[in-house]
Amino acid sequence: MKTRATQNRIIIYCLMAVILIFSSCADIDAIMNPNNIDLFSKDKDGKNGLLKHYSDNDLNLPPLVEYIVDFENPMSVKYSNHLKKLCNYTKIPYKNINIKAWNANLEIASSTRVLCVLETKKLNVESVAKILKFVSDGGTLYLPFACDDKRFGFMVGMKTNSEYATDITSFGLKFKENFIPTLAGISTRKAITHFGMSGENFDYAKIKVYATSINNEFFPTILENKIGKGRVINLNSTFEFEKMDRGILFSGMMIGLEGIPYPIANTSTIFLDDFPSPLYDTKMEPIKSEMNLSISDFVKNVWWKDMKDLAKKYQISYTAVPAFDYNAKTDPPFLFNQWDAKKMSNNGRVEPISSWLMRDCMKNGHELGFHGYNHVSLVKRDWKKPEFIVTALEGVHKKWKVSNFGDMPISYVPPSNYIDQMGLKKLKEGLPSISFMCSLYLGETYEGGNREFDFDPYHHDMFDYPRISSGFEIDESSKYNIQSMYLYTGIWNHFVHPDDVYQIPSPFNKSAGEFELRNAKGLGWRKTKGKPGGLLSEFDKYLKEFTTAFPQSRFLNAGEGGFIALDWRASKFNHKTYDGKYIVEALNTENSMSNSQYWFLYGTTENAENIELQLKSIAVIYSKTKYLDGYLYSAYTNEPSFRIKDYREYRDKELDFIFSKVKNDYYSYVAKVREFEQGEDVSEVYEEQIRLEKAALKQRMLSESSIDYPTWNKYAEYMSWENKSEEVWIMLEKHCAKYPTKENVMYSQELDKLIGYPNDLAMEKWINAQLLVNPRDKDLLNSYVANFNTPENKEKIKKALIALLSVDTGKESMFNYIQHLLWYEPQSALVELEKIEPSNDYREMATNITWLYANEKNYQKAYDWSFYSNEIDIANKMEWLFQLKQYDNLINEYKTHIEKNPDDYKTKALMANYYHEMGKFKEAWILASELPVSKEKESLRKSLNADVVYQEDFVQQDLLANYPELFFDNVKMAVTKTNRLKYGNFIQSENEIQTNRDRMASLITKHSYNFYDKKKNLHRIAGTYSEFFPLIRSTVDTIITDLRFQNREENEELIISDDNKFTRVYGIEYQYKNPFSFDKYQYWSRVRLEMDNYQQTYFQFGAGISKSFNKNFSSAQVNVFPVQTAPGHAKEIYHVHTVLYQSVYIMKKINATLGVESNYYTKSKTNTDFITDNNIDVSATLRIGWDNGEEKKSKFVPFLESSIQKGSADLSDGYPYWMLEKRLFGGAGLSYSYGLEANDFNTKVEAAYFFDDYAEVFQRFSGSVSYRLFNYTALVAGFEIFNQDKFYSNTVQFGLKHSFREKKSRKK
């Protein structure tokens, strides 16, 4: 019977082990957690951003450009429409004036800088004087038509003896200058015959020629004549310039708009038309000769590889527009046989090459647009049944989703760039995701061309994002179109085809259809026989040319560029002048995609140095390319506002004097024209009168020591008419040297107002002379500073500014002084800045002050000053607050910014980094999860994944449940594993065998189910089973044993006592433990009810508390239970076991532990053969080890240990429990541990040797091992063995533990 019972127990234990092992498998986990199984994958909707509709009406601002329009002249009206559209694109205030209203009122707005009129003949006579005054005062008269109106001959630059002959042979445009950027030396528009004024009509001493005709370099097609402070621009052609010529029309205005910044979109897109598409194994020229490759191999292995390399070189994100079939079918079924025909093997997976190319496009950061199911244009003439368009598009939608091509396309390119109103309607019906229609900027509207950057005229739910050029070889006509449009939009949209290389001249090549050949020169792709390079190098060459001219240009895909262009078109900008500055600023910026802005700005060579000095403080970055009489500046600002010096501020007296000279020149010109027409010389008398008056004035001037201002002024005026102003200054210098009075020297100010200083050296000399006689004159000091504030004069300027401060203590003087110090003596500026508080008074220099403090690492001052600058990036403010550890301010600064800029992902990435550094790991993780795919997100992902393993368990669980996509797979697995092991519900089997000497004393088992609640409290419900074997008493001659075991000697006498016999005890236990935390106390409590095989019941109770302090550890616990022996249960003796424990580290190298233990035993039952009283013993054990407390994979720890014990009884034979009246032992030992806590295997073994006043000497061997059989199933075992002659107890423990998946708690 005993044997059978033993076998049954062994079978039960084996079955439990098998169940535990297999329960670690995924199937068991799924069964235990069925809610974790995702039965359906969720399909993401196609990307279809909401298009922002806007009003195209211009703001009612004071105009910069006015156009006198003749509504009876169709050409005048067309030009009006072109100029108005140009100003609408560039946000330049524009106004039309009806020619009838002009003749009635002759009014030019005071804000106007450019006045345009097509033909002047309908202007009344009074118009001439009005316009001449406008030009003389600095305005620009723009005549975009050949002028044969003799009244305007003086302004246009005609000779006085001009015959006004017409040239009937000159054609085309040949640019001598960069009238459009990068086009100097280029010839284009060969089809134009100008019929303009012939070259011999013009006075080349007066005019500047920007362009001639192609066949006649003496025919000026674009010319400028400077008059006074202004100029006249004339397009000497009667040809009606068209949409493609808008760049020329725009440049004619821009000459008069120096220093006027205008916003641009700055987005260029390269479209890959018909890519991907069905591929074929045919070999065709010129690739057949160059590489001997089929079309399929060329496109996949050569063309696409080279295009990707170009993209990396120029940071291009292409828009690839696939067509799925070329069978020209317009009725169902719409199959994809051609697309799927050509296949490839990729990592063991067979798929169509075209599908692989689609995914490779996405993989490399490019956009997938849409070209069509096939290459049949969506026009009525090609689709007899338009409803089949929708059917074909629905097939595309299914193909797209099934093939995992990503989001549905939002940009569309019509096949052959043809589409009509019906086609657009059906396109939107079949593919609602389409938002951007990308046909042609030029062409005819009804065919799908002639699109503007506006909502489509045929479908108001699509925005037009048209293309201007195509092909790998960019000829001069294409460059003209590209640069023309880019000048006023900042957009270059271009398209190429993979098969462009195959369209070579050949009688058998019909692939071009009605269009021109795309490889008319027959070039190869990489190389061409007998010629340098091929199409690839040609395209590369132009990309380099373009990006060199415009290094800030951005090559974005159509999805990105379309939204930017839309945002640019929807924006409104205000223009104003204030305090000598011209200001352009965006309105309603909260509706814009971004607060930053790209700009173009024209500046002459004369003002280039001053403009660039301002740009250094205005723009984050700027560049320039040659344009007109100077440069076109490209600038990027952090704010959508631009403030720059107003270059059209003139003094009224100066303008009046200049106009008097212009009038004299004009009257002289008119007189000479009349003389030429009448054949008479009428000017001699007038000139003689002037000569005599000049002589009289000079005689008087030389005879008087004191200067008579009116006399000198009149003489100076006459001399200026003859361009002899410098002689007057020489006379004044000599006069002041002879008569150096204050009044004489100060006359130089008056003379400057009349004729101006001859040069900068003369100006400086005379202002210095004025300061010598009037050193405290505030206006003089300000004038000196304003005119000579250059690096070479910095010391003189500093002295002038200090002198100015002595006579003018106002804020402006202090402002100028500090500005000077900021530029040249930043350390001195710091001293002065300490005297002032940050305020709006210093807003213009706030940027420089901010950076000065930042460079000095005075981040508080830098941050304080940054409030008064619009040019300090949010990233810098955040960095300074972080360095100052002002984390609350940092968070508030970020939140304020992101409310206005919700799509500023770079700032979000930066804030995620700061959250990480601040220890706000969860916030960092959540913010990083919201970012789109980018380098910043990937960098964050790496750093956060490296640290997430060290976060609190509850943080890890929250992130796993709610933000899992940011985890790397291996980290997710590791964290999941760690959390499952820590907080996953588990089952556990614990078994212990104890012996007294070499005889069995007890077998104790506990099988439990352990679960965590929402607060991570651990609850344990366990079933227990114990076996207690009879003990040997040394005081009587009774040997007690379990009758089931037949291992006794045959002559052994068996005497069974009623309180010392084999006992089985069954129990159920509940235990509670609060969550572990390093900075909080951990406590636990348990209760157990038991019954033995004699129907006797027992209880157990336990409680404990502990806390970790860095490496130190303290604990206290008490347990109440029946004495764990057979007689202990029979006698109903309860054991109260109390332990106090403290572990501390001393000098970082020594670990000292002290344990104080007490054992209290209740009195035994009186009706037994051996009675014990209430007993107690107390012991204290001190252990000192050489251990620094650091976890190492392999570690030895030597130790010393000593223990002292005092008891109330001597029960050294262990019956019914063991106790000594006193005991003292001490010794040394060595501990070795291998493996870390997180490892699948770790063990610890220990051996010690003791001297003992009870047993003389003894050895103790102990150890533990933990081995993870599977990820979540572990085997644990331990032992403690003594070697001594007297009573001793040995213990062996073993068990299994399996952890289940943790229940996920998702955010609501």
Characterise this structure.
With 1308 residues, this protein is of the alpha+beta class. It folds into five domains: 65-257, Rossmann fold; 267-551, TIM Barrel, CATH 3.20.20.370; 567-645; 683-774, no CATH class; 984-1299, Beta Barrel (Porin). The protein is 35% helix and 25% strand. The chain contains 37 helices and 42 strands. The strands form seven sheets. It has a 16-stranded antiparallel barrel. Strands 2-1-3-4-9-8-7-5-6 form a nine-stranded mixed β-sheet. Strand 27 (986-996) and strand 28 (999-1012) form a beta hairpin. Helix 25 (794-807) packs antiparallel against helix 26 and helix 35 packs across helix 36 (969-983). Residues 1-49 and 1035-1055 have low confidence and may be disordered.
Summarize the structure in short:
By secondary structure, the protein is of the alpha+beta class. The strands form seven sheets. The chain has a 16-stranded antiparallel β-barrel. The chain has a nine-stranded mixed sheet with strand order 2-1-3-4-9-8-7-5-6. Strands 15-12-11-20-19 form a five-stranded parallel sheet. It is elongated, with a radius of gyration of 48 Å.
Give me the secondary-structure topology:
Elements lengths: L1 H21 L3 H7 L32 E5 L4 H17 L3 E5 H7 L8 E4 L8 H11 L3 E4 L9 H4 L14 E5 L11 E7 L13 E6 L7 E8 L2 E6 L10 H9 L7 E3 L2 E7 L13 H4 L4 H20 L4 E3 L15 H5 L1 E4 L2 E4 H11 L3 E2 L18 H16 L8 E2 L8 H10 L5 E2 L25 E2 L4 E2 L5 H14 L1 E6 L38 H15 L8 H13 L1 E7 L2 E7 L9 E8 L3 H11 L2 E7 L2 E8 L3 E5 L6 H27 L5 H20 L5 H13 L3 H14 L3 H14 L4 H14 L4 H11 L5 H14 L3 H14 L1 H8 L9 H13 L3 H8 L7 H10 L3 H14 L4 H14 L2 H9 L5 H14 L4 H10 L6 H15 L2 E11 L2 E14 L5 E11 L34 E11 L8 E11 L4 E13 L2 E11 L3 H5 L3 E13 L3 E12 L13 E12 L7 E14 L14 E13 L6 E12 L3 E15 L2 E11 L5 E11 L9
